[in-house]
Records
---
Amino acid sequence: MKKLYFGSNLKMYKGIQDTEKYLKKLEENTKNINREEMELFIIPSYTSLPEAVSCCDSQMIKLGAQNMCWEDQGQFTGEISPCMLEELGIKLVMIGHSERRHVFGESDIEENRKVKSALRHGIRPLLCIGETAEEKKYGISGEILRQQLKIGFYEIDPEECKNIWVAYEPVWSIGVNGTPATAEYVQKMHMEIKKALREIFGDNAEQIPVLYGGSVNPGNADQLILQPAIDGLFVGRAAWDADAFDKLIRQAIHTYKRNKNY
Ligand code: 13P
């Protein structure tokens, strides 16, 4: 079966102790889920990263950073360098999360600089893209996603596809005020994304998993994971309790296997 991806962005929640507790519990809970079938990743706060790295097995749970600067060093007060992430052994970085773009005003050109820098440092970029409610209303979601991908991956060698992940997170579907997208809508958008990736990278684009995020919960995870163009789920709130996340993952894998006759 194809590998399914499950991950969570802890956003600005959980300090060092809570992150450690959460990771230990999640690792214990999920230890008998075959990692050949599932990739599990957690993206905690920066301050928790050193403890997170030492408390969990990277074969079981991959750890990522929520953002990074494109420069290695310099006069960039408040930023985190890719070299600092490398020093911690971090091999995954989220780039262009909706909150970075819309609360902190990041642009596609900045995301492209970050993607290039991450790849240069051997850190896997997880590029997040998604349209706003307004863009959806005007019927330009496909165009927006295509633009975010074309700029975000500008001048990236197709050979790098094996080191890239993409998450589709429509802005209107994220967080406490978000409306979950229907599985059919996500499937349609993932098809657009995969088409754009193919245009950018050619056949190598097949290697890029495309994850969905935005109000994923136990009530919609099964329908989402069954969509052929959805390779995994990137979960916020519904994953911040280790027991609940373990349950959601098991249920989704079970549904996937039953429906695909594995
Ligand atoms: P929610 O699942 O809480 O909507 O958050 C999704 C998200 O932003 C993942 O990056």
---
Amino acid sequence: MLQIKTLGIYDSGLGGFSIYHELKTTFPDLDMVLFADQLNAPYGNKSKEEIQTIAFEAMFRFQQAGIDSVLIACNTVSAVALDFLRESFPDMNLWGIIDITVSQVPIGASVGIVATQATVDSGAYQKVLQSSFTIQKALVDLVGLIENLEDIDTIKQYLVNDDVYNQDYLILGCTHYPLVSDVFETVSRAIILDSRLPIRQFVEKLYLPGEGKTSVFTSGEPAHLTNQIKSLFNYDEEVLEWNSLF
Ligand code: DGL
């Protein structure tokens, strides 16, 4: 049976950190490397080809560093590039976040999905939720608002009233969005689902206990990510330059 020694986590930014933080808190003996590609964020408004090129480069670096098990903690990459990455790196174990997230939805429930433009356009959630009534909405500016640490009122004004919030379930189909889940709770009467719980369950089954050696890398400015993490999580994290992974 496959066992993960060091888990790579990949996202465009803070969404990946929220998954990393969740796993680090739950499994203190899990070895992990997080890559936040903030230089290229946000991904969600880019074309499929651009996202595939950027994601290929990221996976290549993980592979070169000897990390062959990577959780794509980005819905956008999972939606438009997962098959391409699996074909490009057949020796790596790559998991997308969409299949993991939808495992929580009961058959037949009505589901609203909020996500980036690229994820919505791909129809990836609707493909795996075929037995449900689904409605989607792209929140094209929300990743930028979260990365810029905008205040709750600004984010609330951005989430204008919409049917997507009023189905049985609301899927936060972007790993940045749980960072403002309390704002979604004020505009939605649905049961809100995100990826954190099923990812914990998924990783628990597969990882080999290690020493809890973890590192966080960004392609952006390390001090900037350290400050964002301090503001959002009240957590002191040393962030390294992605180029220093080798
Ligand atoms: N966290 C990424 C996702 O889940 C955000 C994508 C972006 O950078 O726009 O889709």
